[in-house]
């Protein structure tokens, strides 16, 4: 070989090397295997870090280590250009015990305070440890962007009432961050059963006495607030006292390849709750819980849900919207390729009387239901008390498509109850085929009230009650109602 071509080869190899190293995945994969490996600390960072106090956290966990010994390490992708090296902050290096008994809250706060200062750093919660962590806030807004929370171990919630004070809305909170990823094969275990008992129907005196000590307000296990570019993947969230995963005022959210699990009879344990969030994608996720698998509340638009399993649970719901005469706006929601098994409803829209605003451009497609009580529901008379006042105002519902919804039901195939003053319009059904699970029992017929739209194909069972065309006189909506 001539020296020219050798030199050329050298340049080529160097290029390949640089490209490989600058590819996030390669460095990521490597560091994934070796993050416990000791490396020389990044000099300037390590020195600055030592002085770092716990920033951005508002909680005192009891009993943790008072002087964590921080020793941030560079990822082992030696040879990678410096800019692509992820800095690791392992909670074990900040004094976490991971024995499932010691309170590791302070160690988590310290590790976060360190990770927060470094762009694209990784906070590591290692596998094969169980970390008892109290209510904690991983909060910006002064954190660097694109932090990764690598969860491979298990985080468990405290079950003593003292950890919860007079009641908190969430246990693990991430707020005001830009680019935050929670990934890994780890588990968030809410140990919620202590909170679930003690409802009126519960007559077990021992459980009632235990749960009497827990505050009335039950926490959501994992909540994101006011954040942009949020990813949750790989992990399992289970047995939350209340909702498992909540997004509030978030934008650009990705949830995929994860599991949510709690018993079908655990009260109010929603799977995923979305509120005031836009550009949300949820896919390849298994959701089993005691309430809605996914609940979409006001202020949500551009939500895309697909390839999700739901059950047990109450199905996928938009609402309840418009409670206490509030205005609700929800639009551009797609739910497709979903399996529902043994759920209370399939796809549901529920609004309270007296609300305003609108729900529009909704598509439910390719929904397979089995043993679902009522697969398709619109309820504009939603009321969770014994009775609610009749009111004329309503959240306006329009442009809602049901396509290819098939399987078995146990109570009623379709229930459309729309408002007299604000009938539902542009409701379309295509290839809806719902069979009663057991022919021998009495089943209800499809029900419609004030619902306008079109059947694009015949349905099973036949639906005769849909009105064609547009609602005429009675649809009243003023400017302040529009979204
Ligand atoms: C979103 O987050 C990912 C991962 O943290 C990051 O790589 C990407 O650059 C972010 N995108 C934007 C537009 O900020
Ligand atoms: C899904 O997450 C698990 C960890 O829970 C991981 O092992 C697996 O590789 C992930 N699958 C995909 C397709 O990302
Ligand atoms: C509707 O939402 C999807 C994401 O699910 C988005 O790609 C699309 O642009 C949105 N459509 C409109 C009209 O905003
Ligand atoms: C509301 O209206 C319905 C239907 O007209 C009626 O059956 C019901 O009794 C009314 N409820 C109240 C609380 O007035």
Describe this structure in words.
This protein is mainly beta. It folds into two domains: 84-200 and 217-291, Single-stranded right-handed beta-helix, Pectin lyase-like (Pectate Lyase C-like); 292-472, Pectate Lyase C-like (3 Solenoid), CATH 2.160.20. It is built from six helices and 30 strands. The protein has helices at 3-22, 24-34, 43-51, 105-116, 193-196, 205-212, and strands at 73-74, 87-90, 99-103, 122-125, 130-132, 136-139, 147-151, 154-156, 170-175, 178-183, 187-189, 220-225, 228-233, 236-238, 245-248, 251-261, 272-275, 278-288, 294-296, 300-310, 316-321, 327-341, 345-351, 356-372, 374-379, 396-409, 414-417, 424-436, 447-449, 451-455. The strands form two sheets. It has a 19-stranded mixed beta sheet that branches. Strands 6-9-12-15-17-19-21-23-25-27-29 form an eleven-stranded parallel beta sheet. The longest helix has 20 residues, at 3-22. Mean pLDDT is 84; it is low at 1-83. One 2-acetamido-2-deoxy-beta-D-glucopyranose binds next to strand 20 and strand 22. Residues 66-75 have a biased composition (Low complexity). Keywords: Cell wall, Cell wall biogenesis/degradation, Glycosidase, Hydrolase, Secreted, Signal. Belongs to the glycosyl hydrolase 28 family. InterPro entries: Glyco_hydro_28, PbH1, Pectin_lyas_fold, Pectin_lyase_fold/virulence.
